[in-house]
Amino acid sequence: MATGRRAEKMEETRAALIRAGRRAFAGKGYAAAAMDELTAEAGLTRGALYHHFGDKKGLLQAVIAQIDAEMLARTAQLRDAAATPWLGFLAEGLGYIEMALDPEIQRIMLLDGPAVLGDPSRWPNQSACLRTSTAMVEALVADGVMAPVDAEAAARLINGAALNAALWIAASDDPPATLARAAEAFRRMAEGFLAPGQPRG
């Protein structure tokens, strides 16, 4: 019983640190977020942060993992609400790009994340996303919706285009205008994979 309560307490502490880190990183940016301030806001010590995440960079990784899971859930909803599998596939990519307008995603995932953690295409979450996209391309090719193509290659190109579009939007002086340009180009690029005679999205 004590072990169960201890594990529960540790999870509560971890969650509190992630909440505090997320607020600090979104509001001030990673560089300006002081560890003493964010741990004090959570009612914890710097030692708790070190114990659970190692350092501030480790906390950023945990915050990004949480936001990424939320983004995946949002794009999955868009996919599932679409009228056809192809439109669902397209909606996922466009939905990801459009989330670059969200201030929290913009700052944490697309600006500070790459600056601190390096190339986002190499983050662990991207591997899972690539596997899902590859499976979707395989299914669309099997159904004759997409032209015969190497599924992994197509998934890498489409996912890479969505990621780079989001990074471009986040760094833009006019994100909404950049989104309109990026979304149109992404749609046209993705439609190039359709089999002859298939309707456009």
UniProtKB/TrEMBL annotation:
<dbReference type="Pfam" id="PF00440">
    <property type="entry name" value="TetR_N"/>
</dbReference>
<dbReference type="InterPro" id="IPR009057">
    <property type="entry name" value="Homeodomain-like_sf"/>
</dbReference>
<dbReference type="InterPro" id="IPR036271">
    <property type="entry name" value="Tet_transcr_reg_TetR-rel_C_sf"/>
</dbReference>
<dbReference type="InterPro" id="IPR049484">
    <property type="entry name" value="Rv0078-like_C"/>
</dbReference>
<dbReference type="InterPro" id="IPR050109">
    <property type="entry name" value="HTH-type_TetR-like_transc_reg"/>
</dbReference>
<feature type="domain" description="HTH tetR-type">
    <location>
        <begin position="11"/>
        <end position="71"/>
    </location>
</feature>
<dbReference type="GO" id="GO:0003700">
    <property type="term" value="F:DNA-binding transcription factor activity"/>
</dbReference>
<dbReference type="InterPro" id="IPR001647">
    <property type="entry name" value="HTH_TetR"/>
</dbReference>
<keyword id="KW-0238">DNA-binding</keyword>
<protein>
    <submittedName>
        <fullName>TetR family transcriptional regulator</fullName>
    </submittedName>
</protein>
<feature type="DNA-binding region" description="H-T-H motif">
    <location>
        <begin position="34"/>
        <end position="53"/>
    </location>
</feature>
<dbReference type="Pfam" id="PF21351">
    <property type="entry name" value="TetR_C_41"/>
</dbReference>
<dbReference type="GO" id="GO:0000976">
    <property type="term" value="F:transcription cis-regulatory region binding"/>
</dbReference>
